[in-house]
Structures are given as C-alpha cells and as structure tokens.
Specification:
It is a single chain. By secondary structure, the chain is mainly β. The protein has 2 domains: about 90 residues, Carboxypeptidase-like, regulatory domain (Immunoglobulin-like, Sandwich); about 120 residues, Immunoglobulin-like. It has 2 helices and 16 strands. The strands form 4 sheets. Strands 11, 12, 14, 15 and 16 form a 5-stranded antiparallel sheet that branches. The chain is globular, with a radius of gyration of 25 Å. It starts with a helix and ends with a strand.
C-alpha cells in the first residue's frame, strides 16, 4: 500500500507539471484593437488612463470584461486574441453624455475604430505666453457648449515637467483649479500661473518648488487646460502643448 501511495502521488505531480508547461506555452495575444474617442471626427482630450471603455467577448460560458484605458489624446490600443467583441462606453465615466449602445468588432489581426461621443463642452484655440519679468505663464482658451444639460463647475490650468498633463499629473500648487467666470461661454478665458519657486515655501510645497526650479532651468514646460461639468468626475482637456521659457 505504501508503494502504491507513492506511485499515485508522483503521477499527480507529473500531471500538474505537464498542465503547467502547457499553460506556460500558450501564445500571448497578437491581434490589436486601436481607436479614438471622437466628437465630429475629432479626438477628445481626457485624463491619462482616467477614462475607460469595456471590451466583452460573447459566446463563452464564462467571460469577463477587459478594461480599455484611454490615453490623454483620446486614443486607445489593446492586444487581444481574434474573435467577436462588443465595445461599450461606461456610464458617467467620461465628460460626455451617457451612451448605452455597444460597438461590434470582428477582430482578425487588427481593427481600428472611432468611438463617437457627445461631450458637454469642447475646448480649444488655446494659446500661451511666458513673461520672464515675473515668471508667469498666461494662457487663453475657448469653451464651446455642446449640451445644455450640465453647467461648468470648474476650469483648470495645469503645468507639468512631462508631456503627461492633467489633474493628477501636474505640479501641485502651481496649477490652477477655479470656478468659471460668468462669461466663460461668450469670451475666451484667461488664467495666469505663477511659477516662481520662491512663492512656494510651505513645507508641503517643497516638491512644487523643486519642480518649478527644474522647468525654469530646462527652459520649457508642458501645459493644458481642463473643464469639469457639474456632476461629472472627469474633465475634457485641450491638447498638451510644450511651451518655451526663454
């Protein structure tokens, strides 16, 4: 009996090793779905990896959603196996009107799609200027209303040392987040960033001081505007731009 017990245990071990090797030998997905979140054919700027879509593959007894994260320029890309999929937009996940319909994707190698949305606002025509005399960055942009169902809650002006710029990727304290002016929809909005390192002396502002010293030494920075509708967590953003600080 003892020998039989040892023999069966060894067989089980070999079986698991075999199955483990088979699992390790599975090929990684090689097909690609790429696309853009668009309004009237133009990509929508969002917070980097802050907004997502969901990809579902039907036809199996068990299935799970695959999150598809959207880059700050409104594009996305995911590696996955060939098959039939449905791409859905999450409710209240982006700065646009909810859309519950899905997009069918038949993937065979690669697919490129545009995902249309209707934002509450669009933003653009942004310009920036650096005033060396007082180390301020002045920025102006326009807000266009698309839907009247949500007012503007906040407008923001973000500055960063890298080209990933948004509410969570910025130089804290140096960036601006304020209520909109009364004429935000009828005239260009102008905001001014004070990037003088000596202005940020509080203990919790030490990191901001170092980062501001860094961009002034390098003589460039990355900037972007954002608009937050009431009752929506995410903002719509202008395109990230690099500005020179001569």
């Amino acid at each position: 009996m003892k020998k039989k017990f040892v023999y069966l245990t060894a067989s089980v071990v070999l079986t698991f090793l075999f199955l483990g090797c088979k699992k390790d030998n599975f090929k990684a997905p090689e097909s690609t779905i790429t696309g853009r979140i668009v309004y009237q054919g133009q990509p929508i700027g969002v917070r980097s990896n802050g907004v997502q879509l969901e990809l579902w593959q039907y036809g199996y007894q068990l299935f799970n959603k695959v999150p598809v994260y959207i880059a700050q320029d409104g594009t996305f890309s995911i590696k996955i196996f060939d098959g039939s999929y449905k791409l859905t937009r999450l409710r209240t996940n982006g700065p646009w009107q909810d859309q519950t319909d899905s997009i069918d994707i038949q993937l065979n190698g690669s697919a490129n799609i545009d995902v249309p949305v209707t934002p509450y606002y669009t933003v653009g025509d942004d310009t920036y200027a650096f005033n060396k005399a007082d180390s301020t960055i002045s920025g102006t942009f326009k807000i266009n209303q698309v839907l009247t169902t949500r007012a503007i809650e906040r407008i923001s002006f973000h500055v960063s040392t890298t080209n990933i710029v948004d509410l969570t990727n910025q130089i804290a304290f140096a960036s601006i987040d304020v209520a909109p002016p009364a004429n935000a929809l009828t005239a260009p909005v102008t905001l001014n960033l004070d990037i003088r390192p000596r202005m940020y002396t509080a203990p919790n502002q030490a990191q901001a001081k170092l980062l501001l010293e860094d961009i002034l030494r390098k003589k460039y920075a990355f900037v972007r505007f954002g608009v937050k509708p009431v009752g929506v967590a995410e903002r719509i953003y202008t395109t990230v731009k690099r500005i020179e600080l001569p």
